Amino acid sequence: MLGLGLSFLTILRGLSPIIQYLQFGDISGNSTLPLYMPPMWPPRNVAMTPYLSDGGEVEILIFDEPNYHLFLESKSATPLKELELGGDIVQFEVHVRGRYYVVLRNEGANTVNGEIIMTFWGFERDLTYLSMASLVFGIAFWTSGYLLKGRRIK
Q1: Domain containing residue 81: CATH number
Q2: I need a surface site. Which of 38, 50, 78, 97 has the fewest CB within 10 A?
Q3: pLDDT in tens, 72-111
Q4: Is 154 helix (H, G, I), strand (E, B) or coil?
Q5: Which residues face 52 on adjacent strands?
Q6: Measured between alpha carbons, how far is 47 from 120 in angstroms, rounded to an integer?
Q7: Domain count, the chain
């Protein structure tokens, strides 16, 4: 029963996307703006849709928690992902559930403002594997119980 319930919930979560909005004010030329992203990111596909001021481009740096703190201290940490955002939608994949931090970098001379819409979509891989494993375990447990019960009656 647990496996069926978990599978059903995994399918429901997979069919409903999570949407987060990142709005930011003026980022002057050659500057960085760290944004704190408190919720856990699920291991899903992500689409970033930028709505930036005229002709604006920003670079997005995505850090895990230890590298984010290192970046705040020294600005020399290695990001997990570096993405150039102009007017096109950028897609990538989150492989492991966890806390991730977004840093916006404007390397141009012009001031940029706007918002970025992040859409998490698809099935969460860790929940999918867990629900499949619990289904297999439940079927094996039920089958062994059924076979053992049949032997005792005879």
Answers
A1: 2.60.120.380
A2: 38
A3: 888 788 999 999 988 889 999 988 888 889 999 998 888 8
A4: coil
A5: 114
A6: 7
A7: 1
47's CB contacts (< 8 A; 6+ apart) are 89, 90, 91, 118, 119, 121
State the residue for tokens 């429901």.
12
pTM > 0.70: yes
Q: How far apart are CA 27 and CA 61, in angstroms?
A: 15
The two three-digit tokens of residue 138, written as one number: 């439940």
Decide the pairing of beta strands 18-27 and 81-85.
Answer: unpaired
Residue 42 in 3-state DSSP?
A: coil
Among 36, 100, 90, residue whose Cα is nearest residue 62: 100
Range of the domain at 9: 2-153
- Give 5 or 90, the one with higher predicted confidence: 90
